[in-house]
Structures are given as C-alpha cells and as structure tokens.
Amino acid sequence: MMKENGLAIVLTSHYMDEVEALCNEILILKEGKTVFHGTIQEAIRTSGKATLEDAYLNFAGEEDWI
Known InterPro entries for this protein (predicted)? Predict the structure, then answer.
C-alpha cells in the first residue's frame, strides 16, 4: 500500500537478518558514498557471495574484519 502511494520507510541497520526480513531494496554506503543500490538478491549475485552479510562486508570493504 505504501509503494502504491509513493511512500517509503528508511531503515538503517547493521543487522542483515533485519534487513532481509524488512527491506525490498537496499543501499550500502562506504565513507558516505553509495557502493551498492538494488535488491538483496542483486547484492548477493553482484558480490559473488553466498549471504547478504558476506555481500555487505564485500561492498563495505570490511571482509578482513572477519
């Protein structure tokens, strides 16, 4: 209903399980710049990773933190 009315909710989170449950599209920022914008499936596919968590770490350049 919100989408049909041109409305959106902006959610900020580092909890990828929340993001997967609540979001249709995601935006990943690194140092204030957009490094990814699209669906969760697109993020996983584009990153070549198996999970959204791993895709996020890849796009954010934080894979070495694991």
Answer: P-loop_NTPase
